[in-house]
Amino acid sequence: MAMSVGGEGGDDEVISSINTTPLVDVMLVLLIIFLITIPVVTHTVPLQLPKETVQPLQTTPKSIEIAVNRDGDFFWNETLVDGPTLLARLKSVSEQQPQPEVHVRGDQGTRYEFIGRVITSCERAGIAKVSFITEPPARGG
């Protein structure tokens, strides 16, 4: 702290400002020292580490696609199946770990009853995830 003690002019006012220039100088010197010493500190014993590739532990199964046409026919990945066969296949798929997803595609003119049968079969078989595939509306109309 600088203080003006007596002097010419008769000002007895105390100057209470701190000169920060030496503090900044010290900080810049410390910064330069750290920048120079950090690369020296990081050098370690040279080793050749083993190369290893990471394989995923769990693969996702292929999803099942069930299509329903206007007449209420069920298609398991483009193969025509009846109701009991659909349920049997869904039961066998539900036992897989991890369980695949079921994607339901219904024709726009299909009655809800037929889509409901597919959902009921999925529920009875124990399928955890069922989703519906739709097309986005046409733009510009």
UniProtKB/TrEMBL annotation:
Q: Recall the GO molecular function terms of this protein's record.
A: transmembrane transporter activity
Q: Which GO terms describe its cellular component?
A: plasma membrane
Protein's cellular compartments: Cell membrane
According to the record, the segments passing through the membrane are 20-41
Q: Does the keyword ATP-binding apply?
A: no
Asked whether the UniProt record includes Transmembrane among its keywords, one would answer: yes
Q: Which UniProt keywords apply?
A: Cell membrane, Membrane, Protein transport, Transmembrane, Transmembrane helix, Transport
- GO biological-process terms attached to the record: protein transport
Classification via InterPro entries: ExbD
Q: Which Pfam families match?
A: ExbD
The membrane-topology field of this record reads: Single-pass membrane protein; Single-pass type II membrane protein
Family listed: Belongs to the ExbD/TolR family.
Protein's name according to its UniProt entry: Biopolymer transporter ExbD
The species this protein was found in: Paraburkholderia silviterrae
Q: What is the lineage of its organism?
A: Bacteria, Pseudomonadati, Pseudomonadota, Betaproteobacteria, Burkholderiales
